[in-house]
Amino acid sequence: MALNVYLSGEIHTDWREQIIEGAAGLDVSFNSPVTDHAASDDCGVRILGAEDQKFWHDHKGAKLNAIRTRKGIEDADVVVVRFGDKYKQWNAAFDAGYAAALAKSLIVLHGPDHQHALKEVDAAALAVAEEPAQVVQMLAYVLNGVLPS
Prior knowledge:
This protein is α/β, with parallel strands linked by helices. Helices cover 49% and strands 16% of the residues. The chain has six helices and five strands. It has helices at 15-22, 37-48, 54-75, 90-101, 119-124, 132-144, and strands at residues 3-9, 28-31, 78-82, 105-109, 127-129.
């Protein structure tokens, strides 16, 4: 069995790299949104033309980014959504809801301080982890049926 995993959520820490490196040797492929914050914010106006109003600037970028996000989530066997400590990630909550609506296997990743705020998101997930290493252990277990040592 092979797994296609979509890594969604905060872009300010190296959690994606921790999971990808930890999963080396597993039959897993990874995909994610564009994690270059400036490119993600400005893609719409850089490709489609400038906007005078910030709303339309953001609107163009959000729609263009949605092409990649929708494709990544729709193609995924497992969607991992990380909520970081520094910012409110409304886009991550949206991605979790989209994955849940598509009946994707959803793993939510966040610290204990977010338990109450994310209770509905956590309830939709098949697992809630606090550390990237736990996600790696879940993927290894799902693929190989072996518990971590």
